[in-house]
Each structure stands twice: as structure tokens, then as C-alpha cells.
Write a structure and sequence with these properties.
- By secondary structure, the protein is mainly alpha-helical.
- Helices cover 62% and strands 1% of the residues.
- A two-stranded parallel sheet has the order 1-2.
């Protein structure tokens, strides 16, 4: 039975609010007021360290995704009204349904590091090359603790912006969002410490990437239990956020590449028409040809805007109706969270899927593989990698010396004494709070302490904006 009153609830860790509308508005306010949300304005979407403010940042991208999610959720509700919203437990929950989809979309990139997805790979590479030796120095004696050590090493080597988002919300910003709003951010349902799913796993798509870390495991499981979400399954509104994100990507990067001077209007038109014909695609081709013919009749400075604005509007409108239809046709599976795929990619025989493939292929070939874009990625690799190397002395200390550092006591490592002063107090408090539940007299404490200390450093570096990371790199590398 589909009953959204089980999912859109008042539950939160502290101070639950008296009714659902107040609870939802409180979540909105906390998100908009969050420093982590504001930092998205200085984070890369595709083009790192971009001075041109009209090029998308993570913030402007998230706003576009939120608008798409609002549009999709409203379209779904309009269709469900034909059967009466009460049938699905949605009476008096329209605002909660729409706002949760919208706010989840604003949060979806909040855990992404500076310089975009390339930085995720850089962090994981650094972890794989450095942290195993740090754990080996602990000289763990029992089989059980050695297994724990291996699990936590795997967790630390699986950095992902989706998992980091939950950590930012729960531990670093302490936003105290409703359980509904927190779990809707959980795009992938596998713990970073778990093995990748087998091909025959019925939830293999939902588990294809890490969705949360070991450090947030207990709260994730608690929320899943309260909201009746089975292990490995998603929250239903998360499918809307994912579709909104996928739709947003389709034309945004092409638009920004034109603004950057990488692709001209004429070249974009040629690439799309050639790729459409190659893939026997007609839906997108017709839109592009119609809007290009209209656009080139206008004055030159406005041709590109005319072309892209109307093409995007027509494409988004069609795709919103398409994914809304899929949501409703698969409503039971989606409500249960066992629908094993993305809404936008579900019907691979549809005309929309062909259009999506055309746009994705063009972006991969002509934007992401562009020399200038890849040069920025190489620069970001140097910055992120160097910052971890510079701060590594903090990880090489034994836990007694690190404890002294936090108490502002003197230790032998004068480099660490100076490095610790640069790390945010919020991140240090999160580290200290995470350790409170462990017994210092047990051998496992040393494992958990090092795990959370590495999380502390990862939180600090991954939480930087692009320009702050560059400045920190320059300062600590003595570069003018």
C-alpha cells in the first residue's frame, strides 16, 4: 500500500516541530542559511576557478536542479490527483512532497569537493597510496580488529560527494533536518565500506556507488527503520532529484562551453544534427533544426540565447512529462525504493532516451575531453594531492600526541602544532564527538581514532571552495 504519511513525517533528531508544514519550512530555512550551501557558489561545476560569473557553479547548477525537481513533483501530483491524493496518503502533503524534492536538489551536491568529480578520484588515489601504512603501524593483534581495520580502510578509500553530503548535513553543519529531508539525499544505498554489488543483485543500480560512510551508518539505519525503508532501497522522492539533475546536465554544459568560447553556435548545431543523424534520432533533431532556423534570423548577439533558451524549454518540458509518467507507472516500486534505475534512463526504446544519448555523447567528446578542461583537472589534481601531502604529518602522529595537540599542549612535531591551527573548529568538534562512543581501553579505539582523524582531514580539504584550496596550496607551498 502506498501511504506517503509513512515517509513525510515530523521525525528529527532533536526538537521535532508540531506540524508537517512548519517542519518543512524549517528545513528550507536551515538549508538556505547553511554555510555549506553558500560555499557552492565557489565550487566547480565543469570549469574550475572560473571568473566569468555567468558560467555555472555548483550553486547555480543546484538551483536549476531544484527548479526541475519542483516542476517534476508538481506534474506527478497533478496526475495523482486524478485518482484522489487521499488514495496515496498525500492529502495535506502536497507542499511537503514538492518542497522535499526541491530542497533535496539544493543539497545534492553539498558534499562535492573543490574542482568537481576529478577531485573525488584524486582523494581516493591519495588514500589508496597513503593510509594503509598508517593503519599497519597500529600493530593490531586480533582477527576481529584486523577485519575492522580493513573495512575502515576500504571506507576511507571510497570518498564520494554523495556520501560526504550526508556527513556535511549530519555532522559538520549539524543542520538537524527532518529524517525525511536527510534520507532523501541518499542517492545510492551502499555503505562505502561494503563491496560493490554483483550484476545479479536486484538493487545493483542503487548500490553502484557509495551513498554513506561507516561514520554515518548508525543514523542512516535508524532513519531507514523509522521511515520503513528496507536495506538497499531508496526514499521515493530521491528518484525525482536524480531525474532533475540528469535533465539539468543535458544542455547546461553545452551552454557554458559556448560562453567559454569552446563551441560556437554553428558548431553546436552541426554537432547535434550530425550526431542525431548518426544515431537515427529525430525528436531532438526536429527541435534543434526549428529553433536554429528561427535564431539565426535575429541580431547576432542574441542568436545563441534565442536558440538555447527555447530549445532547453522544449526539451525540459518534454522530459519532465516523460519522467513523471515513468514515476506514476512504477509508483509502487518507487514508493518502496526498490525501482532499480534512473527515471530518465528507464525506457531505452523511447525517443527521449535517444535524445539524451546524443547530448551526453557530444558533451563527453567535445567538452569533457577538451584540452583546456583537462588542463584544469590536472591543476586541481596537483592542488588537492599537495594539500593532503602537506597535512599528512597530522595523520602520522600517535593518538596521544594528537590529543595533546587538540588540548593546545606542546609536542615534538612542530609542523603539526602549526597545521592543526588551520583546521576548522567545527570539523574538530565533529571528530571529538564521533570518538565519544568508543572505549579508550579497547584495542579497537586506536583504529576508530585514526579512521576519524583521517575523516577530519578529508572533511577539511574536501570542504574547501576552489579559490580557498588554491590559496591554501599557494600559501603552504610558498608560491607567490
Amino acid at each position: 500500500m502506498i501511504n506517503y504519511k509513512e515517509k513525510l513525517t515530523l521525525d528529527r533528531e532533536i526538537n521535532p516541530l508540531p506540524n508537517i508544514d512548519i517542519s518543512i519550512e524549517s528545513d528550507r530555512g536551515r538549508i538556505f542559511s547553511s554555510a555549506a550551501f553558500r560555499r557552492l557558489q565557489k565550487r566547480t561545476q565543469v570549469f574550475a576557478l572560473e571568473l566569468n560569473a555567468s558560467i555555472r557553479s555548483r550553486l547555480t547548477h543546484s538551483l536549476e536542479v531544484a527548479q526541475n525537481a519542483r516542476y517534476i513533483s508538481k506534474t506527478i501530483l497533478q496526475e495523482l490527483k486524478k485518482e484522489e491524493l487521499e488514495t496515496f496518503g498525500l492529502n495535506d502533503l502536497e507542499n511537503a512532497f514538492i518542497s522535499t524534492a526541491e530542497m533535496t536538489s539544493l543539497l545534492h551536491d553539498i558534499g562535492n569537493p573543490p574542482f568537481g568529480h576529478f577531485a573525488e578520484e584524486t582523494i581516493n588515489k591519495w588514500m589508496k597510496n597513503n593510509i594503509k601504512s598508517l593503519f599497519d603501524k597500529l600493530n593490531i593483534t586480533t582477527t576481529e580488529n584486523n577485519e575492522l581495520k580493513e573495512k575502515l580502510v576500504k571506507d576511507l578509500c571510497s570518498y564520494d560527494g554523495n556520501a560526504q553530503a550526508l556527513r556535511v548535513i549530519i555532522k559538520l553543519q549539524r543542520m538537524n533536518l527532518s529524517y525525511t529531508q536527510i534520507i532523501s539525499v541518499l542517492k545510492y544505498t551502499r555503505g562505502a565500506y561494503e563491496e560493490k554489488p554483483l550484476q545479479n543483485d536486484g538493487l545493483n543500480y542503487l548500490k553502484k556507488k557509495p551513498g554513506f560512510y561507516y561514520s554515518e551508518k548508525d543514523l542512516v539505519e535508524k532513519i531507514q527503520n523509522v521511515l520503513n525503508i528496507k536495506t538497499g532501497c531508496r526514499f521515493p522522492i530521491t528518484y525525482i532529484m536524480e531525474a532533475a539533475d540528469d535533465i539539468s546536465y543535458l544542455t547546461a554544459d553545452l551552454e557554458d562551453s559556448h560562453e567559454k568560447g569552446i563551441l560556437s553556435l554553428k558548431k553546436i548545431y552541426r554537432l547535434i544534427t550530425e550526431e542525431c543523424k548518426k544515431q537515427d534520432e529525430t525528436f531532438l533533431l526536429n527541435i534543434v533544426q526549428e529553433e536554429y532556423e528561427k535564431a539565426i534570423k535575429n541580431e547576432k548577439p542574441y542568436q545563441f540565447n534565442m536558440f538555447f533558451t527555447i530549445m532547453r524549454a522544449r526539451l525540459v518540458g518534454a522530459l519532465v512529462r516523460h519522467v513523471s509518467d515513468i514515476y506514476i507507472k512504477n509508483h509502487k516500486e518507487i514508493f518502496e525504493g526498490s525501482f532499480n534505475g534512473a527515471l530518465l534512463e528507464y525506457d531505452k526504446e523511447s525517443k527521449y532516451y535517444k535524445a539524451i544519448k546524443v547530448l551526453q555523447d557530444i558533451s563527453i567528446k567535445h567538452i569533457y575531453q577538451n584540452k583546456d578542461v583537462q588542463t584544469l583537472e590536472l591543476q586541481s589534481y596537483t592542488i588537492i594531492n599537495s594539500l593532503f601531502d602537506i597535512y599528512k604529518p597530522l595523520l602520522e602522529l600517535n593518538y596521544l600526541d594528537f590529543s595533546k595537540l587538540l588540548e593546545d599542549k606542546k609536542i615534538d612535531c612542530f609542523i603539526s602544532e602549526r597545521l592543526i591551527k588551520r583546521i576548522s573548529s567545527k570539523q574538530i568538534v565533529a571528530y571529538q564527538n564521533d570518538l565519544k562512543k568508543f572505549d579508550k581501553n579497547l584495542e579497537s579505539y586506536k583504529i576508530f581514532e585514526l579512521y576519524h582523524r583521517i575523516r577530519l582531514l578529508t572533511d577539511y580539504i574536501s570542504g574547501m571552495t576552489d579559490d580557498f584550496a588554491l590559496e591554501e596550496y599557494k600559501i603552504l607551498s610558498a608560491i607567490k
